[in-house]
Amino acid sequence: MSPEILVAASRLSDLLVRENAALACFDVPHATALLGAKTDAVTRFAAAAARSDEMLVDASVTLAAAHRLRGLADENRRLLERAIQVQGRVIGLIRKAAIRPRGHDRYGRNGQSENTAPGPIAVRTDI
């Protein structure tokens, strides 16, 4: 790896650490806010990797940076998959709650049916 790619790898690693910390405590808004910086860091890392004419640095430094980045990327993938799974469950719960269950018919004093199903519910969509 060149010194430029080590800097790019370090920047990307730092962003993955921040995003992983946010995802680990389900702070999806904070993780989402890092998307632009993460995309930029990945682009810079890829561009630095494409330049092969630069002087290489010590192999042990390169190997350590590669292992760190790989571990953080694996953890990031796992945490993103977990967040997506949890979000799907939450959406499923909201969907289930929004479907009005059919109540049992009950008859009032004058013989007319009184539906016992619960009334409408409010669902926040701005979350």
Task: Give the helix/strand layout.
Layout: H1 3-24, H2 28-33, H3 35-50, H4 59-98, E1 105-107, E2 113-115
Protein model, in words:
It contains 4 helices and 2 strands. It is mainly alpha-helical. Strand 1 and strand 2 form a beta hairpin. The longest helix is centred in the middle third of the chain and has 40 residues, at 59-98.
Keywords for this structure?
single chain, about 130 residues, mainly alpha, two-stranded antiparallel ribbon, rod-shaped
Instruction: List the secondary-structure elements in sequence, H or E.
Output: HHHHEE
Gap between N and C termini, in Å?
43 Å
User: Largest sheet, described in full?
Assistant: 2 strands, antiparallel
Structure summary, number of beta strands: 2
Structural class: mainly alpha
Question: Which parts are unreliable, with pLDDT below 50 for 5 consecutive residues or more?
Answer: none
SS element count, helices = 4
Count of distinct structural domains: 1
Quick overview of this protein structure:
With about 130 residues, the chain is mainly alpha-helical. It has helices spanning about 5-25, 30-35, 35-50, 60-100; strands spanning about 105, 115.
